[in-house]
Amino acid sequence: MIKAPDKPLTSLVNLEQPLSIEGYIEAGGYQGAEKALHHLSRAEVLTLVEDSTLKGRGGAGFPTGMKWKCVPMYEPGDINAPECKYLVCNADEMEPGTFKDRVLLEGVPHQLIEAMIIAAYTIGAEKAYIFLRGEYHLAARRLQQAIDEAYRNNWLGEKIQGTDVHLDLYLHSSAGRYICGEETALINALEGKRANPRAKPPFPQFSGLFGKPTVVNNVETLSNLPHILKHGADWFKGLSPDSDAGTKIYAACGRVKTPGTWELPMGATIRELLYDHGGGMLDGLKLKGLLPGGASTDFLLPEHLDTPMDFNSIAKAGSRLGTGGLIVLDDHNCPVSMVLNLLQFFAQESCGWCTPCRDGTPWAVEVLSRIEQGQGNKEDLDTLAKLCDFMWLGKTHCALAPGAVEPLKSALKYFHDDFEQHIDQGCCPYHGGH
């Protein structure tokens, strides 16, 4: 009996040379899929995932079991049953400050394939896609090699491992754009259309890829499934002392001593992540603020260091857990310049579908550029505040614009003096005349 790992997602990661299918099976791989296919009904697997309380690791934190439960299930022979259902893995990791999925894709590709077999079996899908960020060339090569191995060993294709289960898995490299991370924009891109988000409802679970029921899950979310199947829901919940179950792959980047990724129990504090694992700030620098979950989250301050990195605690502190990737701002870097850099990215990545995002993000870039160059005035701060409201939740077609203004809105709140110094001094106080 193989001992249940404390860090299940990364226990078999090897970034130099990932395990072949033989090595993965020898290490306990495909046992979760074998249990699902041979010993559990679809309903029993769904119940197990629900009981584990697994939440989405892509940013939204939606309960995985609840998402799957929305997929229409039909009895054999039902004339109303759709011809096909689809499972899609969202591997379009383009959130600045986030690189957790890349570790899993490059370091243990068979884990994701096993997870997709389990998920596809549960929802009754016979076709699945991995929608991969186009720049992840090494991940693409390793994934395709693992998919080929899985076909040769009858873990994909017809009558998997002697069962009646069939699954074809395709790797699709994205043509690019951040907006493809939004699940309905991803679906449009997968269909060969422009990557614009769709109006919801209908939700993808009812009408998704090619109009058929579709589930879209993140790489890290799916990767938990083999371990939940092998070791049970109680084991998964026991991995974390926090209200959110399981582990999380956290990351830290910026001017810290040892930037990187670490798999820790859900609810590890920001202080533990930044100082125990990230090594703290570089010598001579102090922490000024940080984005806790990637570029599209609100700033938090040093006073928030003891906040647990879970969905509820970060929300109570005024931000979002997002992808769990810390972007650290030190006291020698300009918050106005940092926010300008982020807004330039979001303005470039807007799909242009709705007016607040299409016109609001470039407008924010224009105003921030003036302030950073020492040409701003006090009215510009009012304009930025109005733009934050103009692009907020409920006023845009999707969540790109609200996410884009989260760092801006919180920077205006926490670093207001820095904005005013730019205006009063006629230059950036951090970068001189820049």
UniProtKB/TrEMBL annotation:
Top enzyme class: translocase
Keywords recorded for this protein, A-Z: 4Fe-4S, Flavoprotein, FMN, Iron, Iron-sulfur, Metal-binding, NAD, Oxidoreductase, Quinone, Translocase
Enzyme Commission number, as recorded: 7.1.1.-
Alphabetical list of InterPro entries matching this protein: NADH-UbQ_OxRdtase_51kDa_CS (IPR001949), NADH-UbQ_OxRdtase_suF (IPR011537), Nuo51_FMN-bd (IPR011538), Nuo51_FMN-bd_sf (IPR037225), Nuop51_4Fe4S-bd (IPR019575), Nuop51_4Fe4S-bd_sf (IPR037207), Soluble_ligand-bd (IPR019554)
UniProt-listed SUPFAM superfamilies: Nqo1 FMN-binding domain-like, Nqo1 middle domain-like, Nqo1C-terminal domain-like
Keyword NADP among record annotations: no
Domain called NADH-ubiquinone oxidoreductase 51kDa subunit iron-sulphur binding: residue spans: 336-381
Reaction(s) catalysed by this chain's protein: a quinone + NADH + 5 H(+)(in) = a quinol + NAD(+) + 4 H(+)(out)
The protein's required cofactors: FMN; [4Fe-4S] cluster
GO MF term set: 4 iron, 4 sulfur cluster binding; FMN binding; metal ion binding; NAD binding; NADH dehydrogenase (ubiquinone) activity; oxidoreductase activity; quinone binding
Top-level taxon of origin: Bacteria
Purpose of the protein: NDH-1 shuttles electrons from NADH, via FMN and iron-sulfur (Fe-S) centers, to quinones in the respiratory chain.
PANTHER family per the UniProt record, alphabetical: NADH-QUINONE OXIDOREDUCTASE SUBUNIT F
Protein family membership: Belongs to the complex I 51 kDa subunit family.
Official protein name in the record: NADH-quinone oxidoreductase subunit F
Organism of derivation: Thalassomonas actiniarum
